[in-house]
Amino acid sequence: MSKPALLLIGEITPRMRERIESDFEVIPLPRDETDTLADDTAKKITAAITFGGAGLTPELMDRLPNLKIVSNYGVGYDGIDMARAVERGILVSHTPDVLNDEVANTAILLWLATARKLPAYDTYVRAGRWERDGNPPLTRGTQGRTVGILGLGRIGLAIADRLPPFGARIVYHSRRRKDVPHEYFDNLTDMARACDVLICITPGGAETHHIVNAEVIEALGPEGILVNVARGPVLDETALIEALEHKRLGGAGLDVFENEPHVPTALRAMENVTLQPHVGSATVETRAAMGDLTCDNLSQWLKDGTVLTPVPECANMQ
Description:
This protein is of the alpha/beta class. It has two domains: 5-98 and 285-314, NAD(P)-binding Rossmann-like Domain (Rossmann fold, 3-Layer(aba) Sandwich), CATH 3.40.50; 100-275, 3-Layer(aba) Sandwich (Rossmann fold). It is built from 13 helices and twelve strands.
């Protein structure tokens, strides 16, 4: 009996490949070569693996008439046209929870590193400037700050759990008020105005595109620090750069960018900006857990047509 065909968009780990090759005929498709898929091959594909950076374009989805399941490697799935997937009855899964801790840790790390200028002062020492020029300027402290969280989902809550040791006042903005002891703001600009630190962990997509705009950045102010561990397009990068250049924002810690892997030269040149190459969940342990769940969802689908962790839009489809 022949194996069902699975379209693999992008790269996966050897551990994942060993698992899926035991159950599927794997058809690899580099993310920049989607137009090379032959029509007869496209017709036999019933499953796909993709990830947040690649997604599944509407054009490619339309070329897969027998697609039944998309297992997304990652919690974010804004690169998948969910309206079209739901309309066609395509089940989409993702990998929530297993990456909460490391992304939350990364958010805290970016705040602390930016506030205390860790990358800049590391360079200061390595360049011999401490010996030559003496002590660098003082930085701002991190204790007793008001920290605003944009998006109080699973990871947002994990970030909030890490803030009490810093004596932080925790506030948040999300689509709806949550049953939590933290103060809720229904207006993001108002929350930014009340914050010393704004951490972005809201989902990506059209609804949140540039939700952190020039007005929000201005409200955060010249001593404020902006941290983005969500999606690059959540933040208006042009407005961010302008505010940093004119000292209307104190600093930024960024793990994601609007046009990855391109990072604007202006950001790379700034000492008050901490940059990471979208590695919020990039630990050996977390990526292994994400890979396992990606494969577990496919195994479950083969077993009974359901998945373990459907995206919210597909929760009622099984």
